[in-house]
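Incident review: delayed structure delivery

Summary: a single-chain prediction request sat in the queue longer than the usual turnaround. Root cause was a stuck worker, restarted by the on-call engineer. No data loss occurred. The affected request and its eventual output are reproduced below so the record is complete for anyone auditing the incident later.

Affected input:
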Amino acid sequence: MRKLPVLSATAVLLGLLTGCSDDPADAGPTPVKPPATTQSSAPTTPTPAPPAEGDLPRGGRTIFPQHQLVGYVGLPGSPALGPLDKNIDAKAAQLEKLATSYAGGRTPLPVMELIVVIANDHPGKDGQYRARLSDEKIQPYLDTARKHKMLLLLDVQPGRADSLSEIKRLEKWLKEPDVGVAFDPEWAVGPGQVPGRVFGRTTGAELTAIASYLSGLVKANNLPEKVFVFHQLSSRILSNEKAFKQQPGVVTIKSVDGIGNRADKESTWRKLTPTMAPGVHAGFKLFYKEDARHGPLMTPAQVMALKPRPEFVVYE
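Output delivered after worker restart:
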């Protein structure tokens, strides 16, 4: 399996920004080369059994305000993309301890955010500039999440492919009560564009379409609330945000993905959280390697002092 370069995929895009500035950039970075992955032709039945009676992993059917979500990101064999590259059972135990430090009176609910569709700098056989993780590689993550009573989020970087279509491909997993979606629109590029050379984009209407699809699954399968996270590191990535419409049974979270020292990250936070549509919850991302290059990693106390309160904190 080919390795990513030292910088993570998100950090490459963040190279378009100067000191986490929100000003437009004229040139993109060198494109990344993620590991090649393949789509499985032999679906498997998720095991072990889902939470009892279709509940969330730690009980109940609603996410907030009962729970505080804390997550790790990862892709098998790619340490540059987060902690969940290997030894996932041990990483889950570490995540449990980290989540407890963020609880603040809530029930900690750890989250494993697995990248299952990853943008490529080359077209692939179908010209869509993305690769897909196989079912056989997804299954161990769901098994581990269930062993530790955690949520699993399936992270999608669509390249030139249609974002909603890539998410619908995951329906067999999304019918499970403990599986949600994360969407990386900075990797959703248009015709003629190459991921990593330009910022991808999305709209409030597209986010509504994704949430509406998930809402339909919740209703049809009598599921507990389903988590839908979209990542954002710059205002240019999301247009007409206020057009987003909350959907029944779906908890929508904006993860603010700014990089840098504490001051830079807080500046990005102040720019991107006031634009959230009604009903959207706030999330915050930290980068073990990239943030540390600019100063000490923010502590849980510093993160939780942000306003509004981050209800999902994720580490890459």
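Verification: The chain has one domain: 61-315.
Action items: add queue-age alerting; document worker restart procedure.
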